[in-house]
Design goal:
Distance between the termini: 28 Å
Strand content: 5-15%
Low-confidence stretches: none
Number of helices: 4
Structural class: mainly alpha
Mean pLDDT: 83
Number of domains: 1
Order of helices and strands: HEEHHHE
Bound molecules: zinc ion
Helix content: 40-55%
Number of strands: 3
Shape: elongated
Largest sheet: 3 strands, antiparallel
Amino acid sequence: MVKLPRCWSCDYSFLWKELLVTGFRIKCPNCEKEQFVTAKARKRSGVFGPLVVVLMFVLMNGFSLNVWQSLLAGVVLLAVILSFSPFAYDFTDKDEPLF
Ligand SMILES: [Zn+2]
């Protein structure tokens, strides 16, 4: 079961649309504490970029799409991935180093 992340401070459950537009710097609308995405979650979402590029190449070769069709497919893929990315977030009270 996929769940949206909660505030580390007050346990407020974020709405999907709140996470979609804000990116990595998010404030809790309930207690106004700043939320930091955990290093683990950032690494998790970091794999999406290369994945899109790989999928574009697969589409280009496997389905003989031209460059523009593949770019379009890449944009669509990116939009799909972005709309699911809030589920990969995990919040903490401090900014963790990535490595
Ligand atoms: Zn809160």
